[in-house]
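Next comes one such specimen:
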Amino acid sequence: MEMTIENMGSEYYSHRMESDIIDFKWTSEFGLKVTISTWRSIEQQIGIEYLFSDFNGFQFLDEGDLLGYWKMPNFRNGYHLYRIIKGGWKSRQITQNGILDVSSAINELKEYFIATTNGCLTVLAYEKPLISEIELKD
C-alpha cells in the first residue's frame, strides 16, 4: 500500500511513551470532538483535542489493525495528526464493493488520521480540525 501523507499539528515526545484516544463525542451542535492523551516531555502528559465541525464519517480501530501503516517511515515520529492525501480509507483501502462510493467521489472531502500507540481514528472531513492542547484531569 503506497501512501502520501502530510504531518499536521505539533510533534510530541514519543520515545517509549504511550498515547491513546481517551474520548470522542459526536453531536449535531459542534461536530466530532476527539481527545487524546500524549506527552509534551518525559515528565509532562497533556491532552490534545481535535474538533471536526463538518465531517462525513469516521472509523475507530486499534493500532494493531493498522500494521501496514506502522511499516511506513512517515508514521514513525511524534505526530498524532496526519492528512492522508493518497492511499488511505477514502482511496478504497476497504475493498468491499460499494463502500465509500459517495465519499470517494467528493473531491472537497479530505481524509485525516489520528494516530496513537493504542486507538486510531480516521475522519473524512471538509475542513482541517481545530487543534487545542488541554490539561488532563487526574
Notes: The mean pLDDT is 87. Helices lie at 67-70, 89-93, 101-105. The longest helix spans residues 89-93.
